[in-house]
Every structure is written in structure tokens, then in C-alpha cells.
């Protein structure tokens, strides 16, 4: 395409937004409809906490009154230390936070959607089957040399962050875990570690 003579166009750099999205209206709109798999495109603390309130065991979707159940999947890209810090903020059995390298070539909201869809397919077929090896279709991983090592992946898992790996250029689920690590007494507890556990 060619611009007419005398017309110049300048594209300004985008500006990163500030604050957290208001999810309260979205949660209210969910009402008492059952959703087994909820993809959360936002990974900030406020958004995750809003969904945690909706999913909780005493008054939320997992409470004896509502019995709607379901699981939330979200994703975050960042350095190892950023993802460890993100995982350490939460201790929630109904939320999976998947961590990806900062150089991952796919936005976090698309990674969350893909992981939610893959988990839904695997778990509906057999809720006891781990979602490991599930292909995240059309999701582009970080380039070679910029991917997490096995030791770094283990560090993420130890801090409540689910992981992925690359096989022949295909991004796959390595392990889907929840952010739950300690019980109400602050004692280490792995009873809700694997996200599949809550679907069985």
C-alpha cells in the first residue's frame, strides 16, 4: 500500500496498562451455571483472588450449598524468580497457575485458554489420567536456549507453578498442579497438589 503524497503516519508504542481488571460483574454473570473448566486470561493477584473467592469451599462453587465445582486455569510468563514469587502468593486447590518462560512466543491469555481446553479434553475422557504430554495446539514455545531447565522446572513445581516442556518444537503440558501446598495449619500437604485429583 502507498500513502498519498503529503500524508505521514506514525505508530506510537503501546502503553502497558495499570491496575487489575474488575471481574466482579463477570463472576456475578456466571451465577449458578456449572463450569467444569474456567480459563482465566488474567494472572494478577487481584484477579486470581477474585476467582479464588468464587471457587472456595465455604461459600463458593465448592461449598455444600452451591456444589457447582469446577477448576480455574491461568498462565503467566516471566523469569524463574518472577514465577516463583507469583506461585508463593497463593495456596489454592481450585486454581492452576501455569508458568512459561519470559521469551515464550505466545501471550499468556492464549496459553491459559489452550491449557484449559487440553485439560478439559483429557480429564473428560479419564479424570484419573494425568494431563502430562498434552499438546498445547498452535502455542509457540520459547526459543531454544531460553527454555527452563529441568532443575528450574522442578523449582517452579515446588512453588505451586504448573510447567510445560517442548518436544520436537511442540509445547506440551509437563505437569498440571494447583497452587495448594499447605493445609490450614501451615503444614506441608500434597493432597490437592495435582489438579486431576479434584476432578475424580
UniProtKB/TrEMBL annotation:
Signal peptide: none annotated. Pfam families: Phage_sheath_1. Coiled coil: none annotated. Residues 17-179 form the Tail sheath protein subtilisin-like domain. Belongs to the myoviridae tail sheath protein family. This is Phage tail protein. It comes from Salmonella dublin.
Amino acid at each position: 500500500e502507498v500513502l498519498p503524497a503529503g500524508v505521514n503516519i506514525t505508530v506510537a508504542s503501546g502503553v502497558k496498562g495499570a491496575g487489575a481488571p474488575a471481574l466482579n460483574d463477570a463472576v456475578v454473570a456466571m451465577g449458578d451455571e456449572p463450569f467444569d473448566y474456567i480459563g482465566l486470561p488474567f494472572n494478577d493477584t487481584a484477579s486470581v483472588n477474585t476467582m479464588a473467592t468464587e471457587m472456595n469451599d465455604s461459600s463458593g462453587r465448592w461449598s455444600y450449598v452451591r456444589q457447582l465445582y469446577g477448576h480455574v486455569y491461568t498462565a503467566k510468563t516471566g523469569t524463574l524468580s518472577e514465577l516463583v514469587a507469583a506461585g508463593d502468593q497463593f495456596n489454592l486447590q481450585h486454581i492452576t497457575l501455569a508458568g512459561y518462560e519470559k521469551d515464550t512466543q505466545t501471550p499468556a491469555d492464549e496459553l491459559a485458554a489452550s491449557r484449559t481446553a487440553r485439560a478439559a479434553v483429557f480429564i473428560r475422557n479419564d479424570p484419573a489420567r494425568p494431563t502430562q504430554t498434552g499438546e498445547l495446539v498452535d502455542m509457540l514455545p520459547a526459543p531454544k536456549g531460553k527454555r527452563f531447565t529441568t532443575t528450574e522446572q522442578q523449582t517452579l513445581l515446588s512453588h505451586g507453578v504448573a510447567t510445560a516442556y517442548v518436544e520436537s518444537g511442540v509445547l506440551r503440558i509437563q505437569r498440571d498442579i494447583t497452587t495448594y501446598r499447605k493445609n490450614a495449619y501451615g503444614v506441608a500437604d500434597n493432597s490437592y497438589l495435582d489438579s486431576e485429583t479434584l476432578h475424580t
